[in-house]
Amino acid sequence: MAEVGSRLSRSLEDYLEAIYNLKLRSQVARVKDIAHVMDVKMPSVTEAIRSLAAKGLVKHEPYENVELTDEGLDQARDIAHRHSAVKSFLTSVLDLSEEESESEACGIEHAIRPDTLDRLLKYADFVRACGQNKALRLDHFLHYIRHGQYPDGCGSHPHDDANHSHKTAPAAVAIESTRLSDVTPGTKGRIAFVSGHGPIRKRLMEMGLTPDARFEVVRVAPLGDPIEIKLRGYHLSLRKSEAKYVEVQL
Amino acid sequence: MCAVDTKAEIVVALAGNPNSGKTTVFNEMTGARQHVGNWPGVTVERKEGVVKKFGRTFRIVDLPGTYSLSAYSQEEVIARDFLLENHVDVIVNVVDASNLERNLYLTTQLLELGISTVISLNMIDMAERRGKWINLEKLAQLTGVAVVPTVGHRGEGIDAILQKVIELADCGLCESPRSARHNPEIEIEVSNLHQRLQIKQDCAVPVRWMLIKALEGDAEARRRLAVYAVDGEDALQEVDNTRRHLEQHFGDELEAVIAGGRYGFIGGLLREVVTHTGSVDRMTMTDKIDSILLHRVLGLPIFLALMWFTFMLTFDVGGMFANWLDAGVTSLSSWIAGALPPGPISSLLTHGVIAGVGGVVVFMPNIVVMFIIISFLEGSGYMARAAFLMDRTMHVLGLHGKSFIPMLMGFGCNVPAVMAARTLETPEDRLLTILITPLMSCTARLPIYILFTGVFFSRNGAMIIFSIYALGVLLAVVSGKLFRKVLFPKSVSPFVMELPPYRLPTLKGTIIHVWERTSLFLSKAGTVVLAASVIIWALGSLPWGVQFGGPQSLIGHLGRAAEPLVRPLGLDWRAAVALFFGLGAKEIVVSTLGVLLGSGHSGGSVGLQKSVAAAFTPLSAFTFMVLSLIYIPCIATIATIKRETNSWKWTAFAVGYSLTLAYAVAFMVYRFGLLAGFK
Is the CB of A27 less than 8 angstroms away from the CB of B389? Predict the structure, then answer.
C-alpha cells in the first residue's frame, strides 16, 4: 500500500516490525521491550516512536506501551509478510540456513518491491511443483507466470492447493497475523489481540474475544456483512467494521 | 443485613445472559402473576412477580438480560444499580448449561457483589445431550455458591431453587460467594488500597467490588468511592496512581486485562467441572438449520418469504378478525343511535366513545397475530438470524438489522410496528426505529391515495402511488441517518450479537408474551386513544346543532383560522380539517372530505370524485397525498409511541418532527411543482 514517496526508512520499518511482533507475542509493546528486541537504548526507541507517531502509524499515549494505528498495523503486516516471504524463498529455494535466511531477510525486506516479491513467491511455487519431476526450464516458468498454470507433469495447481500459503511460507513464519474481518469462512485460528479503545473493544472482550481464544469463521452474511464466528462454544455475529479491530493468527 | 429472623418477603433478583432461558424460568416461577412496568426514567421494561410458596412470599424481579455488569449499556446500568441499591436478598443467576463459558462471565461479576447467589444451571438436559457432563458439586465448590440444575421449559428444578433461596435468605451472608481471583498483581494492589484507604462504616456496597471497578475507571464506582472514602479526593488520587502503575505493568488498559483474567479463571474452572463425551465439533442441529436459513443464496429469499408470510398473516388473517370487530362496533353504534333519542348524548356515545373504543379494539387482532409470530421468531432464535441477514441493508439507515421487521410491519399498520421495535436491544436503536417507522405508509393511508389518483392521475396511478411509498422510505433513510448523527452522536451501537441455538418456543411463554403486549396496548394506549376520540368529537360537534365538522363547528373555525398556513401548499381549510380528523384514523380523511366538499354543492348528488376534482388541482392533490403520508401518525400510533418510549418528550418530538417534515416537504413539492409548470 505504501507509496514510494512516503516509504519509511529502513530503520523505522524495523521498529514498526518489532512493535508488531511484540504485540503478537505478548499483546504488549513497551518501550523497554522494543529497546531490548532491537538492541538499542531507550531514548533511540522514543525518538523512533516519535517519528512513527508523526506519520500517524503509532500512538504512544497515555500509557507507556505503544499502540499501532490502523494504518500502522497495515504497514507492519506488510513488512512482516515481506520478511517471511523472502525468508521462505531463501530457505526453500536457495537452501540457505535458518539463521542466514533470517538475517538476509531482515535486509532484503526493506528494499524489495511488491512485484518482485510476487515473482519470488511464484518462483518458489514453481520450483516446488515442478522441480522434482522435470528439469527446470525458464520458458516453463515464464509460461507459469503469464498463464498461472504449470506445464504438464508438475505437481498440483497452486490454486487447488488449500494450504498454498503455508507451503510457500513454511514454519519460519511463526508470526504473522491478519484482521478478523479479512478471514475467509471455514478458517480457524486464535485471537492475537483486540486493538482500539472504549466500548467496542470492551464489548468484544466481554463476549470472549480475548487473546488466545480459539475461533472459527463460520460464514459471511449473504450481503457481505456481518460475519459469523464460533468461539467459546457459541456463535457470534459482528460487523466487519468491528471485526477489523480483532487481530488474529491462523 | 444479616437478619436471623425469617423475612416477611424475600426479594429475589433474576440475573442472566440474554437467551439463557431467564424469561422461561421467570415465567415458571411467577406464572401469570406478573406485573410489567418500566424502570424509572428509561424505556427498559421491568417485570416483577409476587409468588407465595412454601409458606413464604417471594418478590421476584426479572433484571434485563445482560452479558456483563459493566456500565456501557442502559440494561447493564439498571441491573447493576438494582443489585447494589435495592437490598436484594438472593440473586438467582440463570446460566445456560450448554453455553457455560460465556454465561459464567456474568457470574464472575455477580459473585463480586457479595450477595447470596444461587446458580440455576438451566437447560442442563441440552448440555447432556450434547455430551457435556457438568460436575455440580465441583462447580458449587469453585464458585462458592449453590448450584441447582433446571430445565426451564419443563419447570424442573424451579421448586428446588425457591427452597435454596429460602435457605440463603434466612441465614443472610452465612455462605459468602467466592469471587474470581484476578491477576496476582491486581489482587495485591486491591488489598493494598483496601488497607491504605479509610472507608466509612456505612459503605453500602462491597468494598472489594468498588475498588476493582474504580480501578477499571468505572464512573459509578468512582462516584461511590468519593462518597464512602473518608477522604474522597485522596482516595481517587490513590486509585488513579495504582491504575497507572498497573497499566504500565500490563501494558494494556486494566479493563481489558481484567476481562481476559475472568475468562482465564473460567477456563480453569471448566477444565475441572466439565467432561466431554463424544466429539465437541460435531454438527449440531443449529448448524444444520443455519446452513440452510443463512445460506449464501437461499438465505435471503427464505427470509423474505417468511416476512411476506408474517405480513400476510398479520394483516390478512388479523384484518379479517379486525373487520368482524369493526362490523360489531358499527352495529353497536347504530343500535345505540336507534335506541337513544338523537341529541348530544347519543352523538357523544356513537361518534365519540364507541368510535374511540372501536378505534382501539380494531388493532387488537393485528397485534395478537403479530406478537404470536414475533414471539415465535424471537423464541426460536430466528430473530437474530433476521438481523444477521438484514444488517447490511439497515446499517445504511444508521439502524440495526433488527429494525427491518418493525419497518416492514409499518406498511401494514404503524401501531404493531412501533410495538415490534421492542425486539431491538439498545434504547437508541429502539428509539430511532420508533421515530422513523411512521414514515412507512400504512394501509389506512391507501384510501386517500386511491381517491386522488383516481381523480387526477388515472393514467399513471400506480406510478404516483408507488412514488408516495418510495418517498416515505427515502425520508426514513434520510431521517434515520440524521437522527443517528444529531440525537446520538456519541452512541456506538455495536452489532456484536449472539446467534443463539434454535429452540422450540414454549406455548406458555408465547401466551404470556402475547397477553402482556395486548393488555398493555389496551390499558395504556387505549385510554389515550379514547380520550382523544372524545376531544375530536367535541371539536367537530360543538357548538351543539352544527353540522359535524362543518364550517360552524369549533374545528371549522379552527380550520379557517389555520387556512393561511395551508394556503402556501395550495390547500384550503377543508383539507386542513380533513387532515385533523385523520388523526383519529387516516381513512377518515376521505369520509371527512366527502362531508365537507359534498356540503359545498347543492343537491348533494355530486359524487365525491367530482367535488374533489373541483376543489383540488393535480398538483395540490399530490401535495395533499404527500402531507397525508408524512404528517402526524394517527392517535393510536402516537399513544403507542408514548407507551413504548415511556416519554412524553419523545412523543412530542415524534409529532413535532413529522409535522415539520410534512410541511417542509409538501411546501417544496407544491412550490417546485408550480415552478416546473405543473398546476
Answer: no
Q: Residue A208: which of B101, B296, B392 has the nearest Cβ?
A: B101
CB contacts < 8 A, A to B, total 139
Which three cell numbers, joined as nine digits, stand for A17? 516490525
What DSSP element (H or E) covers B46? strand B45-53
> Residue A170 pLDDT more than 60?
no
The region, left, alpha or beta by phi > 0 then psi within -120 to 50, assigned to residue B55 is: left
* Residue B633: DSSP 8-state: -
Q: Choose the CATH number for B9-170 among 3.30.420.10, 3.90.180.10, 3.90.79.10, 3.40.50.300.
A: 3.40.50.300
Q: Check A223 against B300: CB less than 8 A apart.
A: yes
Which residues 603-632 in chain B show a CB within 8 A of chain A?
none
Between B199 and B95, the higher pLDDT residue: B95
Chain B from 445 to 474: CB within 8 A of any A CB: none
Q: Is B278 exposed, middle or buried (0-12, 13-18, 19+ CB in 10 A)?
A: exposed
Class of domain A1-174: mainly alpha
Cis amide leading into B206 (omega within 30): no
**Residues of A with Cβ-Cβ distance to B101 under 8 angstroms:** 208, 232-234
Task: Say which DSSP state B315 is in.
Answer: I
B283 touches chain A (CB under 8 A): no
Q: Does A205 touch chain B (CB under 8 A)?
A: yes
Report residue B7: phi and psi, to 5°. Answer: -75, 145
Name the nearest CA neighbour of B160 among B214, B70, B74, B92.
Answer: B92
State percent of chain B over pLDDT 70.
93
- Rounded-to-integer distance, Cα B619 and Cα B629, Å: 15
Chosen from B243, B388, B394, B502 to mutate, greatest number of chain A CBs within 10 A? B388
Chain B residues in contact with A26 (beta carbon < 8 A): 251
Nearest in space to B62 (alpha carbons), one of B100, B97, B95, B92:
B92
Give tens-digit pLDDT for A9-32: 888 888 888 888 888 877 778 888
Residue B120's beta-bridge partner residues? B94, B148
Q: Where are the domains of chain A?
A: 1-174, 178-249
Residues of A in contact with B393 (CB under 8 A): 223
Instruction: Give first-to-last CA distance, chain A, whole Å.
Output: 22
The rounded distance, in Å, linking the Cα atoms of B210 and B69 is 13
What is the CATH class of A178-249? mainly beta
